[in-house]
Each structure stands twice: as structure tokens, then as C-alpha cells.
Amino acid sequence: MHLRNLRYFCAACETRSTVAAARQCHVTQPAISNAIAQLEEELGTVLFTRQARGLVPTAAGLRLYRQGGKLLADASAIVESFQDAGSRPRLALRIHPALDTAHVARLLRHLRRELVPLELTVLEQDVAAGDGSPADVELTVESCVPSGHTFVPLWDERYVLAVPPDHPLAVQEQVSLRDLHGTAFVDRLHCELAPHWHAGLTQHHVVPDVRARVRSEEWAMGLVAAGVGVTIAPLHGGRARPGVVVRGDVPELQSVTRRVGFAFPGVAQGTVAEVVRVCSPWTPVEASV
Predict the structure, then answer these.
(1) Per-residue pLDDT for the chain (289 aa), expressed as one digit of tens each?
(2) Is 223 helix (H, G, I), strand (E, B) or coil?
(3) Distance (Å, rounded) from C-alpha 251 to C-alpha 246?
(4) Residue whose C-alpha is closest to residue 276's, from 93, 133, 122, 123
(5) Hey, which residues does 155 pair with through a beta bridge?
(6) Structural contact between residues 205 and 254, judged by C-beta atoms closer than 8 angstroms
(7) What is the pTM of this model?
(8) In terms of Cα–Cα distance, which of 205, 199, 158 is closest to 180?
(9) 144 inside domain
(10) Which of 44, 88, 110, 129 registers the highest number of CB atoms within 10 A of its CB?
(11) In the listed set 82, 102, 125, which residue is the last one of a domain according to the structure?
């Protein structure tokens, strides 16, 4: 079994697309497909099923992803152990709290695989209570980029209405923001568009019943899944949320999107330039199978 095939397979498992996996690994799509086919032949099992929403790992595929990911991590650790600690590139990364942790995790795994000796430090979004160390790069929303910083876009997200499965709005044929009047609501204080939503709802005399105010994406979605209330949130691609019904058909949200990417002062140099280079496959264009 070749580590290269495992690497290509894991990329396809994470991106759910041979096209996106090829971009991520800097190879052609046939190289990804051939790697998957070779693994399936070698292991005597089917690793993916192909559906309209993309590649879906089978039970065997998920098992290989767990075991193969550990093997790749061990291989990277061996290489890293022979590196001089003083010469390893370092990167301090600050991550906006309103970003989807699952998608960010995929990006970070890719980054650490591509730059094996990289020593990555993740800083809090608010450093007031910390040591105040500046970040080399910020993974943030375009509208939050500090003045004088360069912005490199990575992906786009659209805003949707997230609803508990047993909520009336989950099955209502047509939904608009006016339906939020008096509805239990989870307010996402960390969202850069929060003031925009509040002003828009007030303008239309829509007053939600705010049951929770949270400062992290996972708390917001967790409370929606628990049935505490509904929320307006960005969604990457078509990724489903466990225990949450996503209403992407709200007319007022159809054209509302945001762009996520890297922000850094000046021009990318050294380690920052390498990070931007290896993450270039994470483009704002939606990939297909």
C-alpha cells in the first residue's frame, strides 16, 4: 500500500470530491480516481459511493480513513523527528470564532500534511486576556480584515436559517424572515453581520424571542439542535448539520454570502507565502465530483 494513494484517498474523503481532492493535492483528477481504484482493488472492498451531493464514504471507507489518517500522521512524525527544531517553520494563526470548525479542521489537516515540519500555534480571537502576541496570519471573513492587510480568499459561504427538526418552520412550505417574529431565537453575537440582521428585523417590525446569546458557532448550532431556538448562520457548501434542518430557501437570505480567507500584513513572505501556496486549492469556486 502506497502512502501517496492513502494521502489522495484521505483528501477525497475530506472534500467529498475527486476534483477538490485533486486541487488540494496539486495533482490531476484521474490521479485521485486511480489511487482510489487501486486501494479498492488492493483491499477488495468499495470505499465510496457516488451520489448527487458528491462522494460518500462507505463503512469500509470510514474505517480506512481513520486508520490511514493515523498512518499518514505517523509518517509525518517520523520526518519531523529528523528535522532540526530550530529550523522548523513556525506560524501563529488566529481563527475567527464564527467559522465552521469542521471545515477549518480539514484546512488545518491539509496544511500540516503539506508543510510537515510546520509548528502551528492557534491564537485566541480576542488576545486581550492573553499575552497579546500578534498573529502571522488570520483565517477570517473578508469584511473583518484589518486595514492595511492583504486578503487571500479561500471559500464562500451562504447564509441560511437553521431550525430544530421538530420546529414548525422545519416543515413550513414557505419561510421568510417575518416568520421569526416571536420565534425562539439563538443570537450569534460573534457574527460580523449581527448588527445588519438586528437592524433589518427591526425595520420590518420583526422581534424574535431571544433565548440565548452565544459567541461561538458550535454553541449556536448545538443549541439549535437541542431545540432551544432557530438562528441565521453561514453554511459552507452543502454540508449538513447533525440534528439541524437547514432552510436555504428564505428569500431575504438568497443573495447574502460571505467570503473566508487568509489575512496578513503586507506581502506574503517566508512561511506565510508557503502557507498561501499550499492552500491555493481551497478556492471560492464550488467543486464537483
Answers:
(1) 888 899 899 989 888 889 888 887 878 899 999 999 999 999 999 999 888 778 889 999 999 998 988 888 777 777 666 666 555 678 899 988 888 887 888 888 888 777 767 888 888 665 344 445 688 999 999 988 988 899 999 888 888 999 999 999 999 999 998 999 999 999 988 777 777 777 777 777 889 999 999 988 888 989 999 999 999 988 875 466 778 999 989 998 888 888 999 999 988 888 899 888 888 766 544 433 3
(2) helix
(3) 14
(4) 93
(5) 260
(6) no
(7) 0.67
(8) 205
(9) no
(10) 110
(11) 82
Number of structural domains in the chain: 2
* CATH classification at residue 201: 3.40.190.10
The answer to whether residue 87 is domain-embedded is no
Question: What's the number of CA atoms in the CB half-sphere (13 Å) around residue 251?
Answer: 7
Task: Identify residue 59 by its one-letter amino acid code.
Answer: A
Whether 163 is in a domain gets the answer yes
Closest CA to 139 of 117, 110, 161: 110
Angle at 77 between CA 75 and CA 80, to 5 degrees: 115
User: Grid coordinates representing 131?
Assistant: 499575552
Q: What is the CA radius of gyration of the chain?
A: 21
| Cell output for 46 | 468499495
Asked whether residue 5 is domain-assigned, the answer is yes
Q: Which domain holds residue 228?
A: 157-257
CA 218 to the chain's CA centroid: 12
